[in-house]
Amino acid sequence: MDNSNAFTAWRLFQLNWIPIAVMGAVVLAGGALSGFTIEPLGLGITLSIAAGLSLIAYLYAFAKGDQADPKLIFPLGALSQLLLIATIMGPLTYVAGVANWPLQDHTLLAIDRAMGMDPQTIARYVNDHDWLGGLLVRSYALIKIMLLAIPVVLALTARFVRLQVFVFAFSLTLIMTLLISTFTPAVGTWYGLMIDPAQFKSLDASMYQAQLRDILALRDGSLRHLELFKITGIVSFPSFHAASAVLYIWALWPVRYVGGAAVILNLMMMASTPVIGAHYMIDVFGGVALAVIGIWLAKYLLVPSSAKALAAPRSGLVPVLD
After folding, report:
1. Angle at the Cα of 128 (from 122 to 130), degrees rounded to 5?
2. Positive or negative, the Cα torsion across 237, 267, 299, 165?
3. How many whole angstroms separate alpha carbon 268 and alpha carbon 284?
4. I need a labelling partner for 44 at 20 to 30 A (CA). Which of 14, 199, 254, 274 fits?
């Protein structure tokens, strides 16, 4: 085991709680001011799982000291943090949506068409190829699977610092996405085109329909009670699906045999966003750009902390828990 690598990663793991705490505080304060309530069962389940994973990681680190295996500590800790981020992310998109800025579907659609990428043409092509529609539906769901797999893969391959940078970049990219989407709200391509997606019978429009339902109810004030397991992300521009694909590719690229597969799978996920997620193409480009910025910021902000950790006196992991 590379002790300096593990020691540095543990330092960065502590720092990763900061953006999570900030997002949690914002959703609590914003939710209270906006009159939101959250169904307690779903929230309690997710928070309990996250707290349990984190508690196991910390207790094991304290109990074992120098003998603590980072391949056990870091996947548990990262999974805890990512689960918290995912738990906060959904309600936070709704809190941001309360700002009720004018919908920007017409602008986003105009940009797509100016680039020669009409959403209706893309939808018609996928609709005419049933196999492609089915593939894109499965690809769209990869966002959750990959998020759970990355901490395990990176920890088992001893890429502990990269795992912490990934978690930090994921948090930063989400924060930037939510800030931008607050002022550029949109429903999706079907809304912008003013057509019923039912005319494309081979396409799965359930994600769009859920988003349409919740955005309209949110904007007219009738939606203020959230059920965690039923809400959907209501962010159009920039696409966090596209951003996640870039983040996942970056995280897994150095892992032999896994990196190439990650590129293929995440490009498929990115390709699914205009159809299954009803995103405009500019949403995808925006998500990609934000992910690149998020990765750069994460590395830039964490490098000084990494250097400080390496320079500090140490013995195993436990001393840095103080």
Report:
1. 110
2. positive
3. 13
4. 14
Beta strands in 30-134 (DSSP E): 37-38
Q: How many domains does the chain have?
A: 1
Q: Each residue's pLDDT tens digit in the chain (322 positions)?
A: 346 788 889 999 999 999 999 999 999 998 899 999 999 998 999 999 999 999 999 999 989 887 889 999 999 999 999 999 999 999 999 998 888 999 999 999 999 999 999 999 999 999 998 899 889 999 999 999 999 999 999 999 999 999 999 999 999 999 999 999 999 999 999 999 999 888 888 888 888 999 999 999 999 999 999 998 888 878 999 999 999 999 999 999 999 999 999 999 999 999 999 999 999 999 999 999 999 999 999 999 887 665 555 555 554 554 443 3
| Structural domain containing residue 33 | 3-321
